[in-house]
Amino acid sequence: MTKQFAVIGNPIEHSRSPELHHAFAEKTGVDLQYAKLLAPLDGFEQAVQAFFADGGVGMNVTVPFKEQAFALCDALSERAKIAKAVNTLYRQNGKLIGDNTDGQGLVDALKANGLDLNQATILIIGAGGATRGVIYPLAQAGVAKISIANRTLARAEQLINDIQAHVPNCELSALSLDQLQNEANAQFDIVINATSASLSGDTLQLPESLTFNFAYEMAYGKASTFIDQAIARGMPYADGYSMLVGQAIEAFAIWNGVRPELKDFISV
Ligand code: ATR
After folding, report:
1. Which whole number is the average pLDDT over 197-218?
2. Which of 150, 183, 227, 238 has the fewest CB atoms within 10 Å, measured from its CB?
3. Can you tell me which residues form the catalytic site (predicted)?
């Protein structure tokens, strides 16, 4: 029987998830349909209940419902608990289970770009939901140090307070963007832009003193001054499309028990 999946959000028209999951299904021979579901802003829970009552197998959750999905679940994966957000839903023994595949999507995207995360040092710029979702999976992948630089320092400090105890082998530290500008020898293997600056067309100025081997922009499909600066320095970089595909593959594997190869769906 054809398995039914959907991505739920508001807005939802732009979502690439159906085309990705249909491509994975074709590659792996899974029989599925994957739809876009526009939920009213006050109707998320009802839409989820109706989808599963109709026999739906799994759902992806996108903006602005990831926190509501987190609150709705009967059980959560460890990484979803730490992220405080859910992007993947399914049912098990009548219970609604929530997971978060965004961070593993980033880990797999970085690896697909040829990066070794074991003992790596990473600078993440931004301390919002996108950053919260990726710290634990990066630490699980062996990253030794993560510095979080944020415009509002207190937000980065709060994030570290919440998460450090869950990642004892990864040293987290917080700094403000101003401190980053004045850091004389800031050196990292990877720098990740997890701010929404490129989404709103804002410029993110990287200090001259900052050195790195690879730049990853979590956003995709938008002009990014962050990527422009990596290019100007002659450094390798990638945008968030590979993370998008990576999180979709992780959800597909949870639901269908078979894992498509990320490299078959991105160009690196
Ligand atoms: P998301 O869920 O995508 O992480 P968010 O929780 O709204 O979205 O967080 C947005 C992040 O981008 C924050 O770290 C924000 O910095 P503040 O905490 O200081 O607000 C950062 N951000 C947004 N626009 C920015 C800009 N123009 N320059 C620097 N940081 C910016």
Report:
1. 93
2. 183
3. 66
76-116 per-position pLDDT tens digit: 999 999 999 999 999 999 999 999 999 999 999 999 999 99
Q: Please give the distance, rounded to the nearest whole angstrom, from the Cα atom of residue 131 to the centre of ligand 1.
A: 10
Annotated binding site for NADP(+): which residue ranges? 78, 126-130, 150-155, 214, 240
Residue 84 appears among annotated catalytic residues: no
What SS3 state is found at 189? strand
Please report the domains of the chain, with CATH numbers, ordered by start residue: 3-100 (3.40.50.10860), 103-239 (3.40.50.720)
Residue 93 amino acid letter: N
Q: Beta-strand (E) ranges in the chain?
A: 3-9, 32-38, 58-61, 75-76, 88-92, 95-99, 121-125, 145-150, 171-176, 187-193, 211-217, 237-238
Task: Compute the distance between CA of residue 210 and CA of residue 188 in angstroms, rounded to an integer.
Answer: 8
Cβ of residue 204 lying under 6 Å from some atom of ligand 1 = yes
